[in-house]
TrEMBL record:
Protein name: Flagellar P-ring protein
UniProt keywords, alphabetically: Bacterial flagellum, Cell projection, Cilium, Flagellum, Periplasm, Signal
Described purpose of this protein according to its UniProt entry: Assembles around the rod to form the L-ring and probably protects the motor/basal body from shearing forces during rotation.
Gene designation: flgI
BP-aspect Gene Ontology terms: bacterial-type flagellum-dependent cell motility
Protein's cellular compartments: Bacterial flagellum basal body
């Protein structure tokens, strides 16, 4: 029995088995949408890391490090005007963090510290008090603490080894919140739900589920990515209680048929709704091998002449047996085709080429994403 017959037999057995479709799983609304107004805010600051073991910025190449160090020392009452100092244990850094929604003064958040000069490592350094600003230019937090670097570096006279990224690290709970975002959630009379993956069917199902859980029709779908909720008529004690009830309602999301392939690793990921129309598939492998075997010709002993290298090339083209012309019935799921190709021992990269050809023929009814 040849490979073509095996392929057709495997596909025929899978189709005849009439496999039951996988039961759809319900997902909480909180995992499908973003609540308007309930969001985090990015923070950024410019600071100085001290206490490094000779791995800091070279001040000749990073004059901004000397400038900020001078400013910090003068604020502390140390006059360094006109002084020439070249320490190697300091580094200028950017400090980034994220202010979570409804964060209150006195709370703590994690921050990431990244070198911006030519420092070799931040391992063992300490971040000096650094204010963190939001997009409006206001200071919302202040960061300070010991940097936990994400790597290590070692070097000798002729070699250097770097593991990870020693010029970047983080400070857990390294920033304290000093200012709150001016937002009163309890005063909201309406709320918009924004789908992370807009889809009309999913938005309609969310609307139906919310309207069944609350008296009256408080939810209305505006488009494929937005559902408006009337919190004033939700019949709850507060908008927060209404959102707490809404976000735990279960909905069956509708996903687009999609096939994602990674050519570097040969990974193929597909949805259960991917279908293939009637199509014929034929695949073969062509191998080209070229070898160089030059020959050196030398003159006779005690005679005039030079050694000559004569090139000699061997080229060979071999075609390995692949999949013959196989017809895939219409309505077959892609998972069945993949299972049949796996049974034949087709490599992942050849499988990706086959899927590309099926998509180009217009028989693969799904969004084809190549990474």
């Amino acid at each position: 029995m040849n490979r073509l017959m095996i392929f057709c037999t495997v596909l025929g057995m899978m189709i005849a088995a009439q496999l039951q479709p996988a039961a759809a799983q319900s997902v909480r609304i909180k995992d499908l949408v973003e609540f308007d107004g309930v969001r985090s805010n990015d923070l950024v600051g410019y600071g100085l890391v001290v206490g490094l073991d000779g791995t800091g910025d070279g001040l000749r190449n990073a004059p901004f490090t000397e400038e900020i160090m001078t400013n910090i020392l003068e604020r502390l009452g140390v006059n360094v005007t006109g002084e020439q100092f070249r320490p190697k244990n300091v580094a200028a850094v950017f400090v980034t963090g994220r202010l979570p929604p409804f964060a209150r003064s006195g709370g703590q958040i994690d921050v990431t510290v990244s070198a911006i000069g030519d420092a070799k490592s931040l391992l063992g350094g300490t971040l000096i008090m650094t204010p963190l600003n939001a997009a409006d230019g206001q200071i919302y937090a202040v960061a300070q603490g010991t940097v936990i670097a994400g790597g290590a570096a070692a070097e000798g006279d002729a070699a250097r080894v770097v593991q990870g990224v020693p010029t970047s690290g983080m400070i857990p709970a390294g920033a304290r919140i000093e200012r709150e975002v001016d937002f009163d959630f309890s005063e909201l009379s309406s709320l918009r739900l924004a789908l992370r993956e807009p889809d009309f069917t999913t938005a309609a199902r969310i609307e139906q589920v919310i309207n069944r859980a609350f008296p009256g029709r408080i939810a209305r779908m505006s488009d494929s990515g937005t559902i408006s909720v009337d919190l004033f008529n939700a019949g709850t004690r507060s908008p927060a209680h209404a959102v707490a009830q809404i976000e735990n309602l279960a909905v069956e999301p509708e996903r687009r048929a999609r096939v994602v392939v990674d050519q570097r690793s040969g990974t193929i990921v597909m949805g259960r709704d991917v279908r293939i129309s009637r199509v014929a598939v034929s695949q073969g492998n062509l191998t080209l091998r070229i070898e160089e075997a030059p020959i050196a010709v030398q003159p006779n002993p005690f005679s005039e002449g030079e050694t000559v290298v004569i090139p000699r090339t061997e080229a060979e083209v071999a075609e390995e047996p692949g999949i013959g012309l196989a017809e895939v019935p219409g309505g077959t799921s892609l998972s069945e085709v993949i299972a049949g190709l796996n049974a034949l021992g087709v490599s992942p990269r050849d499988m990706i080429d086959i899927l590309k050809s099926i998509k180009a023929a217009g028989a693969l009814h799904a969004e084809f994403v190549v990474m």
